[in-house]
Amino acid sequence: MTAPDPPNSPVDPIFENLRLELRRGCLILATLAQLRQEHYGYTLRKALAEQGLAIDESTLYPLLRRLETQGLLLSQWREEDKRNKRFYHLSPLGQQLLTQLLAEWQSLNDSIHRILNQPEGRPESQNQPQA
Amino acid sequence: MELLDRYLQAVARNLPRHRQQDILAELRANLEAQLEDKEAALGRPLTQGEAEDWLREIGPPLQVAARYLPQQSLIGPSLFPMYWFVLRTALLWAVVIYTVVSALLIVLGQASAPAIPLAILRAPGVLFTVAAWVTLIFAALEFFSARYPRQFAPFVLQTTHWSPEALPPLEKDPHAPRSYARAIAELVFGFLFLIWMLLIPQYPFLLFGPGAWYFRHSPFQFAPAVLFFYAWFVAFNVLQILWRGIDLARGAWQHPHPLQNVIFKTFGLIPLVVLLRAPGHALVLLKNPDLDAAQYAANLHTLNQGVHQALLVVLVIVVLQLLWDVGRFFRDARNRAA
């Protein structure tokens, strides 16, 4: 494990940009997965944060609208605690897409593991046992 | 809380009209739930400062509202490469055309004394107009292709569709060594060209074809400037042949001197300038002006003026080419030094 970069090093902004891009790619999958149970915006954000995926409300709430427009989510207004709230949950199409996305994510994860586990300096094909 | 209400009011101003109330109601419910949790954790209402910090964390109202708008670029990734190419090409041609036209207007005396600084000051405005039109056209294409994808699909496909067969052939490396065969061919053809030019005064049909007979029996003749031009042109070709011959004899045909092209172009300007400085800009004169002036003078003047203006354009183009070659020479010299 390499030593952490000193504070304000040139790597920080680069790392921050790449980290955000990596998280952006997982955001939709995490949101769909969490909405296997019904949530409204704020509770969804809290649930994701508790699982280690903190998301800005200004990112999450418009995302919910977009996913609903695409037919992946269903919503309904309901009164709870004397306040009208919009509750979201997965639609049947969203469920189907979630399954496909999870399979895709798993495949990517496995590929990354294989890349990381191959010995340095030798391509994967040379790791195959010789006949 | 009044501050939250003001914040939501500012967000609402920038939301899409038809969904404004719906989005606002949802956003209010979420933010109020968040506020309740914060106040429950503190055991008291937020102070003004804490409320302002909280809203600052959420983000500026314009930015928050913008996230609810459909994602659209002014010029999207599929059209942008074509846009960038067209913009660079259009600006380059705008610079060339503007420079040539301005230079002609100044040289022909149709512009006043401060014409050059005025032309330079007007240049950014011209380039900005060209860039604005190109950007507007491509932004319109992006807008309509997003709204009407089926109708615009063939156009977008054309910008992204390509065939390996249509790739241009390999460009010759300008720094690749010249072959011996090519060096010999240049010398031989240069020599043949010189012989041809030397025979023209004796046999004008070699240049003018059947028109040589007409010209001989016409009332017209070439001005002395044309003969001077001819002599310079012959001298220039002799210089080229001598230099190339010396390169061959020295065994230096593979890599001609880097300045050779620049020197040839510079010397090539001299005959052009000789023609342009002809007295009265007249390259064709009447053999017997007393007899033929009444019949031919007006047309001859128009012809001479037309030829003069054409030569001016040629001069501007050659000067631009020379400047390009000089720039390339210095760039190559810098690369070699590095």
Total count of strands of chain A: 3
Q: Measure the end-to-end span of chain A.
A: 36 Å
What structural category do the secondary elements of chain A indicate?
A: alpha+beta
Q: Radius of gyration of chain A in whole Å, from Cα?
A: 20 Å
What structural class should be given to the helix and strand makeup of chain B?
mainly alpha
Write a brief structural summary.
The complex is a heterodimer of chains A (131) and B (338). In chain A, 56% of the residues lie in helices and 14% in strands. Chain A is built from four helices and three strands.
Spell out the blueprint of helices and strands:
The complex is a heterodimer of chains A (131) and B (338).
Chain A: H1 11-34, E1 39-40, H2 41-50, H3 57-69, E2 73-80, E3 83-90, H4 92-117
Antiparallel strand pairs in A: 1-3, 2-3
Chain B: H1 2-13, H2 20-42, H3 48-58, H4 61-66, H5 80-107, H6 115-147, H7 149-160, H8 180-199, H9 205-208, H10 211-216, E1 220-222, H11 224-250, H12 260-276, E2 284-286, H13 289-337
